Amino acid sequence: MYKALLKPLFFRLDAEEAHHLVFNNLKRAHRLPGAAALLRGLYDYQHPSLAREVFGLTFRNPVGIAAGFDKNAELTDELAALGFGFVEIGTVTPRPQLGNPQPRLFRLPQDEALVNRMGFNNQGAEAAAARLRQRRNRELIIGGNIGKNKDTPNELAAQDYVACVEALHEVVDYFVVNVSSPNTPNLRQLQEREPLIALLQQVQERNQALPTPRPLLLKIAPDLTDSQLDDILLIAREAELSGLVATNTTISRTGLTTPEAQVSALGAGGLSGRPLRRRATEVIRYLSRQSRGQMPIMGVGGIHSAQDAQEKLAAGAALVQLYSGFIYEGPSLVKQINRALAAS
């Protein structure tokens, strides 16, 4: 029904407008008597073999929704009903911010891809925390993807990440430090070895001082070289990270079917979707091999089918996340993946 009826309607709208329309209608529908049970019946697939124990947490299945979809923790119960094993909210910043000027989210249908330059638009860490305290589904694993405000200089970035940890630690199950988005000026400079280890050590120190420390992960860009990935693994061990998220969106436009002039006209932004699949898998495989399978990895990037998800897991990912594939394929994709994994 999604691909035949709803998707053509949504794709006639501006991409961000369609996103908000889906959000609002899903929230309204979920409030109707019996709606949650109906959604679970249609899209949720459960099997004991799907459970995963990763960095001390039990995930009911290995398929999550990536950060960027539910920035403000508005749809966690609804996404659980759609069959997701975990939801990563954010990217959340300490203070609310509007993000970059619109339009800032674009579709490339020929490539089944998205380009975004959202710029960490969100309502702030306190608003997300308040919303998570009100959620009904307490069994769903929640990740908190955290970032810095646009006007915070890099030398003070650690203060913003620490503030997010303090605001969210009681309501999330793990944290992801996001320094790899291409849409906040100079943010990716924090991926360099010296600033990154300083940042992660400060965040980890505060995290470990809390009554219940949370697993701390790092989300990395797909555009890093092998030597930079080696540095990431060394830094992850030094900062005692629990895992890595590979990968964020890419700044590359290589190999697209969409005409170059059309892509260039969209301007800057991170590319996600099918074109990212191969590179994201390469990064996962490299990190897994270099760490000898000792560093848990969340695999994300270009998952549009059960086969794509299995590819990421075979490359060394412990868990997978969807974003663009969910937009293009619809909610049945989650069930397709889980059913295929249970049958394998």
From TrEMBL:
Pfam families documented for this protein: DHO_dh
Residues at which FMN binds: A67, G68, F69, D70, K71, T91, N145, N178, K219, T247, G273, G302, Y323, S324
Signal peptide: none
Compartments where located: Cell membrane; Membrane
Keyword annotations: Cell membrane, Flavoprotein, FMN, Membrane, Oxidoreductase, Pyrimidine biosynthesis
Pathway recorded for this protein: Pyrimidine metabolism; UMP biosynthesis via de novo pathway; orotate from (S)-dihydroorotate (quinone route): step 1/1
Primary localization: membrane
Cofactor(s) needed: FMN
E.C. number: 1.3.5.2
Record: residues binding substrate: K71, N116, R117, M118, G119, F120, N178, N183, N248, T249
SUPFAM superfamilies for this protein: FMN-linked oxidoreductases
Active-site residues, record numbering mapped to chain: S181
GO cellular component: cytoplasm; plasma membrane
HAMAP family: DHO_dh_type2 (MF_00225)
Protein task: Catalyzes the conversion of dihydroorotate to orotate with quinone as electron acceptor.
Assembly and binders: Monomer.
Family statement: Belongs to the dihydroorotate dehydrogenase family. Type 2 subfamily.
Protein name: Dihydroorotate dehydrogenase (quinone)
Species of provenance: Hymenobacter luteus
Classification of source organism: Bacteria, Pseudomonadati, Bacteroidota, Cytophagia, Cytophagales
